[in-house]
Amino acid sequence: MSRKPSTLKFFSTGVNQFSSRSATASYSLLFLCRLRVNWKREDCVCLTWGLGQYKLLVSFSPFKLEISCDGEEIVTLNPENKLYFETLQDPTRYQEQYMILLFHTHSKTHLEISVGMDLSLHGFNHTYGLPEHADTLVLKDTRYVTEAYRLYNLDVFGYDINSRLGLYGSVPFLLAHKLERTAGVFWLNASETLVDVKYNPEPNKDEPPGKKSKISPQTDVRWISESGTIDCFILLGPTAAQVFSQYAQLTGYQALPPLFSLGYHQCRWNYEDEADVKAVDAGFDLHGIPYDVIWLDIEHTNGKRYFTWDSELFPNPGELQHHLQKKNRKLVVISDPHIKIDPDWPLYCEVKEGGHFVKNREGAVYEGTCWPGESCYLDFSSSKTRSWYARQFSLSKYEGSTESLFVWNDMNEPSVFNGPEQTMPKDAVHHGGWEHRELHNLYGFYQHMATFEGLLTRSGGTERPFILSRSFFAGSQRLGAIWTGDNVATWEYLKISIPMLLSLSLTGIQFCGADVGGFVQDPDPELLVRWYQAGALQPFFRGHSAKMTKRREPWLFGDDVTSAIRSAVQDRYRLLPYWYTLFHQAHTSALPPIRPLWVEFPNDTSMFAVENQYMIGGALLVCPVTDPEVTEVKVLLPGSDVLWYDTNTAAVHKGARTLDLPVTLNTVPVFQRGGTVVPRRAGCGSSTADLQQHPFTLTVALDSKGNADGLLYLDDGHSFSYRDQMQFCLRRFTMRAGRLVNSCADDQGSFVSDDKVESVVILGLNSLKRKPKLKSRVKRPKVSFCGNYEWNISCVSNVVLDINQKVVSH
């Protein structure tokens, strides 16, 4: 790990059980750098690190930590002396009861177990993170809402909007941003956690952007967890990119997904049989809509027995997968964590005999109700159980599976239909005697981990797995994709999906998406189109719907709707080289592929709360249409010194303004930032495998000085050879003074690509003083040039540049 002066860890493990709430505890500090004692007294000590600009003042009684940089206070831990471990209490007070299901109670074997801590973030009045909640991007002041932010993984069907109640996953990571600094707080605790946020003073909405208030703002945050230890990391940035990297060093970087998984996924609960799957597959080809993956929900199994197939509906699953694979398409099947109680099912007997089930508090196997009826739940906290589960994905064990079959982990909060809050009781017992309350939020993460290991082992460690999980925790980004669960087909859910996905992206869960069209209820045609357009501009792109809804394949709503959806999906496929490059950056530097505007414009306070538009990488600003029957949308263009090019019209606009932009059903506002180069494919074919048949087009958007640059990352798209044999290619395209240079951005890569750049589109033609020309030692057909100075755009075509060849164009 880096020894940069960036991360402080505060760790406390024990408490004197005979003391008061502010009990004496054992505290430890961990730095990633060398500390020096600046001065000390009997009641405190001052430590410095880095070049001396960072200081930590440790006060002993009462205990307090104050962190500053160059005299500026950043964060104070325990400012109100609320750091505590719960002391011994009356056992009769600790039988938990639920208002909805009063017959559910939990015992507490260990009574003095809850922990808490408060901290103050100085100068900050905007905080983010703490997913998953269907709420605003900026965290709310919890004094003025009905509840604290709850981190407790639950199966919530058609969840409430604008709520702080916990949903399917939890990441106890909070970011704070102000002018010239971003910081983060990571509270590593997997038990039920409540977070209170208090802004002092409240932000002044009438204050001019960029003007500093005379009263220094402060955000007070209080963490309370039901169990565990205090294990808190303070990430000091100072930039957002540095905070992302510091957090990734602790929890892991986003896995580099296989290229096919960035294409479009078609899902429904449920496709009826093999003929239905083949008909849907053929429908995409017939209507010219590319897609890569079709999904099967629980009905494909034999009576909800996972790792099986319904022999009547899916008698030839291997042949079905081969049928799809011939078109370079994949199949995904669901695998939930519960196992049907069936003494005649060999797999159930094997699990029971192997001791792989969670136990109840009496020591018997815990039983609950889910899709198969009475079920038992795998204890993924045990490495032995995870290894057993991983083996079930081997081709020899999973009958009817092939290497083109991938996995969907659902219901893994875990969901228990007859359990308290529809989940597992907190006093259920896991491997090693751990109560479920201790690791509840880790349950789905552990299943995700076991599934990842299974698919990795299936290929001998050579192929990148793809697994979608509904439940997640900090670090789930290492394992695959996440989606926002059972949303509803209304405009409000389309709109809230944007801040939900931005919150996930800020906290490391960067391969994320929402069910296009809404899982519950039936969208009208306009809503469906707008959702496809939004989904095509988000990392994970899947259409999904419940079995009680009407069929909604893209061609079922008339020619106009089909055309609009086709256009959105095709645009997604053409842009995949850019998306794949962004995921390479996420994998290596933790930069999120989608990010709030404030990440790119950190010193513009008017960007700090924007949540209806965002950046895809550093080059594209998007504003999905999330209201019905609109013919015009307002688009905020940041940066007074930035030029923005409308990708639909090539019109150029200066930043630091709001546009009233006309839209039709076929258009969504997308702007390319001046100074950037975006790679696209010239065509899209029927799946991602067809992309290599189409050359690249570079869109060069010039800044006010006539400059631009951008990256393109390539590898084989599916294996780990980019990591193990350095089989990758990273190219940099740079425009300076009318010269476009294709150069190597990482000379460690040894991947040789046959890809070509066939055309270069230059936005900002008026910035060039002469007609573009190409110089190269390679013989090629005559290059053609066309330009329109009125529209400020030019196109150099028939270029035919080898990606691996260094070329300079004038």
TrEMBL record:
Residue ranges constituting the Glycoside hydrolase family 31 N-terminal domain according to the UniProt record: 24-196
Segments forming domain Glycoside hydrolase family 31 TIM barrel: 255-582
Domain Glycosyl hydrolase family 31 C-terminal: 591-678
CDD domains noted in UniProt: GH31_GANC_GANAB_alpha, GH31_N
Keyword Hydrolase: yes
GO molecular function: alpha-1,4-glucosidase activity; carbohydrate binding
Domain of life: Eukaryota
GO biological processes: carbohydrate metabolic process; N-glycan processing
Keyword tags: Glycosidase, Hydrolase
Family, similarity comment: Belongs to the glycosyl hydrolase 31 family.
Full protein name: Neutral alpha-glucosidase C-like
Organism: Sinocyclocheilus anshuiensis
Lineage: Eukaryota, Metazoa, Chordata, Craniata, Vertebrata
Gene name of the record: ganc
